[in-house]
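Supplementary material to the annual report.
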Amino acid sequence: MEQNKPVVTAASTKSIEMAKKVWPFIKEDYARGHQWKKEGKPVVWSCALVEKELYYAMDVYPFFPEQFAALCAVRRKGGSRDPNVEKEGVRLARIAEQHGYPTYLCGYHRVGIGYVIHGDLDDAPLGGMPRPDFMVTSSTACDVRYKWFEDMARRLNVPLFVLDRPERHEFGFITRRPEQRALQYYKTQLEDCLSFIERLTGHRYDADKLNEVLDWSYRLNELAQEILELRRAVPCPMSCADEFTLMYPWMYKPGTREAYEFYRELRDEIRDRVQNKIGVIPEEKFRLMWIGLPNWFNMAVMNYFEKYGGIFVRSPEYRALPYPARTPDDPVGELAYRYLFAGYGAYGMLNNIDEILKDVVDYRIDGAVLSYLITCRPHAFRQGEVKHVLEDRGIPTVSVEGDLVDERSYAEAQVKNRLDAMAEMILKKKGIL
Amino acid sequence: MFEKFQRVIENRHQVAKEWKETTGRPVMGYFCCVFPEEVLYAAGILPVRIVGSNEPIEATDGHMTPYGCTFCRKCVDLAARGVYDYLDAVFVSNTCDLASNIDYWWRELAPREDVTIADVPVRQYINFYNYPQKITGKNALSYTMNEIRGIQQVAERYTRTFLSEDDLRRSLEVYREHGRLMRELHEIRKQVPPPLTGYEAWMVEYSGLFMPKDEHNRLLADLIHSLSDRPDKPVPGTRLYLSASAADEVTADLIRLIEECGGQVVSEDISVHSSFYWSEYAMDRPPLEAVARHSLSVPCARSTTSDPFQDMRYQHIRKTMADYRIQGVIFYILLQCECRASEFPYLKEKIQSEMDVPVLLLDGDYFGVGSEKNRTQIQAFLEMIP
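Predicted assembly:
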């Protein structure tokens, strides 16, 4: 039987010096977490969209199965670089499928469940995730987020807390305050979560500690916003190739001094590049938006247009909306407000699309690549509409189908054809070709 | 015996339009069994469940992703083609990922102006029931009650009334009676053999989603009374439990197929179906609270609870299988139905190990339930059951 040719994928090429420091940051984070567990301290497996400030305030070390799945998407067993050794993401997804989970389920879910089913939690990239003492997830963004965690928690026989974050479907949510009933409800969810962590760990909630953590995450968010503003510059100082790598400290360590200091260095680097008009590529001919989460196993696509003078200047996935000013007398209420107002999650298609249209103007976008994640319903839902809305406004788009972490469904040749055609179209439209 | 129910199903849009013309009162459509239709009923509104149909999808292609539940796409397709134009308002519930975004597509594809004052909505055509995803725990009830007050406001503004506690209580009496009758009908299906087929039971229950509940109660009471004397009792078959994604008249064809093959569906766990009548109304509570409690009692596959060791779905299935002498369980999971697909491996394992009952998984698209593939699998499954 003819051996299947392995899918040719690669990491992205980074332009930013701080982006090259992310991998050591991640390795250090995992190593510290494993050490924490060895010392008998509590570890939580958490969904990526939970307020991490809760963990840092309660002295709990979080690991994130979604991030872990993305790691598995790029790593091969034992750190091998042999392209004939399948990626860990594929191996673990296959284990899940063999146990009855269909291939149309979220890639993160299949990898996470496959990992738990295969049982040897150490036999994984970076030593895997330490066995959790409990799990916390959120209802926001998608159903899989908590159905998956329910399943993992059952299999590992650990308690689970689900933070129920009300959806925000009212239009113009960014400019409107969350409804009072939603705020009240969500604050009690956070209070319950803190009580849950107290019961399981014996650690007492301390408002001063939470305030300290919220100070750090507030400042981190301010830096992240400044970076987003700086990236509007022409030439763009930092592309999505760096952005998706650099999101780790911002996404997973908010509330820590180390994340703030990392991003402060990053902000300084970006400021310097803007002041000196240093772009990612020597001659920027067109600017693109990447809409949707990436195919983590092939981040090289973020550099694909550079040979044509194109650059991905923005992805709307990891926005940093401004937080309200601090209210230290009610840190839990403040946290509830932050995440209902500005948190990544479920805020309806209309708001999603409205935000993208604003970005098109702010970032001077010439075209968009729609990441059509066929196993990620919240992203797949909107892409058809996004395509219509953008093309009605003269912004060309192209769709790239694939999975978040499972490269088996990725059609490399087809993707390249589409991207090449898109580049030609934009260059012609701009009179460059 | 079942013709009246069948006629309502086959002519459901006409039934609603005629009711609207006769009474001069609004008809409002809603998604999902969690929706507190009792409040609309209390305001003299006819609540009707929005479901799909068997025609091909025309209007949503290019808008709604094909990588999503076809049932939801079909519902919006009907709206886009004007089939639901008779609805005065639509309620979208925060249930599964795709269903909860239907408000967007309905607005885009079947738009209608809201009534506003200074751009502030007074009467919106599309309304959102922000149902919690965690249906137990601190403040789930008070939050849901506040959401239901929002629905009450919509009902009041459309009818220019103010609903009193007595109005709500009268509505609850009708819905309580409906639940009691449906549970009585379901109890009858414990008989060996039951005097009605699974498909007939489905017709009875499903038709109730498109007509006033008090009228349905009368038909239901008559039916229950006459079942024991039924001359054409159905042929007994292998007693089966069906757990399925959204089952409207398209996917309910599966029940007919199962029974053609020699099975007999005697109990179920199906979305767009029985979920809403398993629990009784807390009539000792204030009526709005009773409505909210009932809404939160629906054991939907998409919901979670505050229990740190989650088992709500298995406990519900176990409860609804008990005493029905189930010989086999069939799961039918629509493609892209993530909530049911996620829970299936665990439920299968538990049913097989703790109840010692064989399990068959069928999956497929909304339009493909009657496929030869399904028939073959069902026949093989039934043959292996002693």
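Chain B touches chain A through 51 residues (CB under 8 Å).
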